[in-house]
Records
---
Amino acid sequence: MTVAAQSSASKSREILSNADVVLMTKSGLAKTIIIRKIKESKSNFDVSVENLVDLKNAGVDEEIIETMMERADGDTRRETSIDIKTETTAENVSTTKTVSIEKKPVANTGNRREILRSAKTVAVEKSSLNPSRQALEKELLKRKDWQALDLNLVRHKDGADLYIEIGYVPLSWITHRYVFRVYDNKTGTVIAAGETTSWGSLAGNLAREISKKLSKIL
């Protein structure tokens, strides 16, 4: 195998993970280089709330994290083929057939924009005691960037197009960190995520970050 062929084969096998992004960040690579690498490589990123917080704590730039989320959300409907060996008893001949398994579609960046533009209602779901739902809704309604989204707040998640999930980061007694994710209720797609602290006004901080993240999609 030639050097070029070996390089090509190595590249095709490479699949980026969260740990790879942290390694590139700690190695001092420029943000633009890391983002380009993410966009040009296959990836298997875990963008759960816990892992988003871990990435932030590891010093990964927010723009890089957003690019990771876009890649995690950006794989459109794919089919995974598996080989099932079947035997023809009469002829005692083994044959192989391919069965297609359809994965659940995940919205790409353009689709996230369309999801947000078509949404009319949004609900707030909390796993933390604070802030109160009423306080957060009040702060959201005061913001012009939220008003521009033209989203009506509703009480129950089941009847909403989108819902905002808020949780407290365990063991963050000093920083008092809270994370949020905005989901498309129909597909479960995460269209925005972020974190803030309770310093000052938790409801106000969350309202600002949620509005800013959603506005950026548009």
---
Amino acid sequence: MTVRQLRQWIEREIHLDLKNVPFDTEDANLLPAAGACSTCPKRTGNNPLLFPEIKNRSLWTDPACHHAKVQAFVQLRVGPLAKEGKQPVQISESPSWQVLSRAPNTLYEGQYRRAETEGECLHTQVAVVVDGRKAGTVIHVCTDEKCKTHCQFSHYEISPQEREQRRRLALAIRVQKEARSRILKALRQKLPAALARADFEMVALDYFRRLGHDNHHRLFQVYGWAEKKTKTSWGGNTVDHEKLAEARIRAMTAADLNRFMVTCTLVPDLYCPGYSSAEALAKEANLMRSAVRYRLNASKITAMVTAELRAARNKIRPGSNGRERKTAKAR
């Protein structure tokens, strides 16, 4: 679960916004055991010391109490209907395909059709919404899947023309997938043991494109290539690394292309993440594996860099007044 998903779950299941409830939050008689929401200690605005990080002062932190009050409010709306001898159908505005655990004796969106008035068809029934912002709302619904009066307002039915269009699109997609697979299979059988120049350039360019902008910049620095800026269509300036690299790659010899491909693989290891910039590169990194394979002493190189940078730091130090001065040893 991501941080955003966790935040949404907390807001949905734990921190319930009182601004969205269907009943009066000042009503202390709705659920006498709980009292009014406006004075409840579980409301974030009534206990700022307990919820200092929550800016919304009308959040409800007790889902069980929220559910009980909604049910009590629904029963108040059902009471008059029961006295008239009606048994309202319980419905939810949540789509049936999105509900993980369904409440018993409750119909979800997609399982009923709304009716404007009572008696629109032989199957029209009175219903009451049992959850959400419209909990307690009394409406009329039709629950007959084959109702000729309301079927046009329930499930979306595609026209014969659209069905044919979808069939053609599905066929075109299947053709493309199968054709591309067969082209690749045929090409693999024709590939030579040694890559041709055109294939080598294609591989190098494609690999370079996949490195991303930051590694493009690092690679240009490694090779000392100029990052010339060009005008964009919206008036800004940008560096088209791919276009600049393409010209360089096509001018390389076969040996240079070999070295370029390996360098592309090693360049990402130049990145030092901000959270661990001072940590040594892992032994499993491509840069360290290659150093061992080519018998380079990475520890010795690191020690030399450390000595050089320490010497440079001791040679020139910033003065107390912000200007640089020589140390007494250097004098």
---
Amino acid sequence: MDGTLVDSTTGVAGAWELFRQTYPFIDVHNILSSSHGIRTVDNLRNHCGIQDPKILESEAERFESAIVSTSSKDGRQGILLLPGVTPILDEIVPGSHPPNPCWAICTSATRLYATSALSIAGIPVPDVFVTSEDVTKGKPFPDPYLLGAEKCSVKPENCIVFEDAPSGIRSGRAAGCKTIGLLTTHSREQIESAQPDFIIKDLSAISVQRTEIGVTVSIQQLC
């Protein structure tokens, strides 16, 4: 979701700056370069040293609330729709559906934050919606995408994962899915290190078409 469907860069940076007031020892620059695509609870445990489950849950909620409420000095909002998303949703969301869901969101975010972010961006919540609470092990482990494929009633090898973060690409690969890396958040070198099957600038580089048995994805421009 983040970095693929929506741009939450401003919101995430603002949330970490806010948390530095409570945890002055954290290195925000280092965190921003390595934490994307990883569950908020895991990031807070790793970078802020929070171990108590109740505090961790409370702080994760505070962090993600800060993301959606943040705006930059120039008025840039914390959540923005990324290029290429609208035409894809126009194709796969409306009309008659195949027997099984044809798309899913598998995010490292909590359900509360993810639902808020999608609402702000004007993106409908899909029938299959896997969030951080739904798995014991988040990305880069395969659990989120294995669960997404299971809920779509399809084999992982028949799924395509779109990811902007190395940890997410590794999660999709570990699950046995084809992976497409987006250059919306990380450098090409960082994305290449995770070895996706294809690399594109953003979702404007692909087109999709609904079929009776699923979705056909065509890549218009590789990076």
